[in-house]
Specification:
It comes from Flavobacterium noncentrifugens. Keywords: Hydrolase, Membrane, Protease, Serine protease, Transmembrane, Transmembrane helix. Belongs to the peptidase S41A family. The protein is of the alpha/beta class. The chain has 18 helices and 23 strands. 36% of the residues lie in helices and 23% in strands. The strands form five sheets. Strands 1, 5, 6, 7, 8, 9 and 10 form a seven-stranded mixed sheet that branches. α13 crosses α15. The longest helix is centred in the first third of the chain and has 16 residues. The two termini are 40 Å apart.
Length: 523
Amino acid sequence: MKINKIYIPIFFFATLAIGVLLGGFLNFPVDKPSFSKNNYKTKLNRLIDFIDNEYVDNVNTDSIVDLTVNNILEKLDPHSVYIPPTEQTEVAESMKGDFVGIGINFYMYKDSLAVIKPLENGPSEKAGIKAGDRILFAGKTKLYGRNLPSDSLFSKLKGIPGSDIELTIFRKSENKKFKVKLKRDIIPIKSVDVGILLNPETGYIKINRFAETTYDEFQQALTKLRNDHITSLVIDLRDNGGGYMEMASKIADELLKNKDLIVFTKNKKGRIDKTFATERGDFEEGKVSVLINENSASASEILAGAIQDNDRGTIVGRRSFGKGLVQREMDFEDGSAVRLTVARYYTPSGRSIQKSYSHGSEEYFNEFSKRFEDGELYDKDSIKIADTLKFKTKGGKIVYGGGGIVPDIFVPLEVEHGQETTAYLMQSGAVGHFVFEQLDKYRNDFKGLAFAQFLTKMDKSDLYFNNFQKYIGNLGLDLKLYKNKALVKRYLTAEFAKQLFDDEKYYEIILKEDPMVRAVLKD
């Protein structure tokens, strides 16, 4: 079960920044620290008790504590954060890699819970639920016409493995209402989107984050591709905000020789912990390319840095985010948590790729817009690097620290300067929502079409391109899509393919004209 959110493109970078903010940490919690009887440390507790017991009006002291914790953490660094209970459950599930539910992609369309697609082999698909169905009731709880928030919807559909739930369904295509009973089950949340062939020799693996299950998912994809006898591997880390360091290190281990340094960390006491590659690696000999962009951060940068500094492969794309801080998580009894920066990590050459945060979090995350203004997303020569922070790879190549991984092969944004909003819009949730609404009207037009017939239909028609132009206009976006018509049609076709067929077909379409992929295949 997953909600696709609409992101207005002007805030696209801010949204990705949140993923970066929460991404990239050591994968174990720390025990709650014991506090000494220090006046400064007890002052806060005494004040909260004083307010709770004596203040003239009723006050939610929990909210005061949350505000205080946030204010304290804001004084530290942009990645030391407080996660309230309402968000921590979702974050924990995402990093765990699964949850218990009914197995559907959905969103609220005209205040009805609409099924975008049931997940393959999940409880809903097995029960006969189809794309386009509306779920009216979960048990006796009405789910439509109530403006229910997302967390409330999730709570009605989640449960424990094997627990029963009865759903009342309205099938628009047949104009009928019926009930189905199903058992909730463990639903995987994929961190590896696909593992497919780009050509007979080249495999492609897309990693969207580094969760508990990422290494196993990567291994499954790599094994399948090795069975196809690939000699070259492309690992796509674009828009991957990070996650567990250990997963990035384990994947690097599959690509590097025995005893190659992968990463090391250093804490405030000067303790250094190094991670080395081990003897066994499933892809130590073939060609490796890693795709990164301005939203690749933390664990993504660990993997890219290990490949670059060991001269193991080629980094392709644009300068990465620049997050070299490591967090540990401390959980509280109320379900909230604090992620505290406890160390810095360094790539094998010894460079820290952490960009400056000396002017505060707002400027730190707004650095995205500065890259636009400076022209960095279009011209490699516009990348500002610290010439004083020079390091050498194992083979003697010069690399730089102090602000992300600079790619070996630079690939600019696909659109012209000033058209960035269109590029990011096409990767936002708005496209998925639009396609669902179109299929809700025209689903029968695609019935029985083979994939090749589908591609021909989409190529010959401008219907959906024109409809999408109207759709974003209704969202309040004044964009002239015809300036990037080929790009827009490609992403629309891919999203239709995802909802009608599967994720592999989506990537087949997207990657065919992908500038970074083309740069790899030409190299």
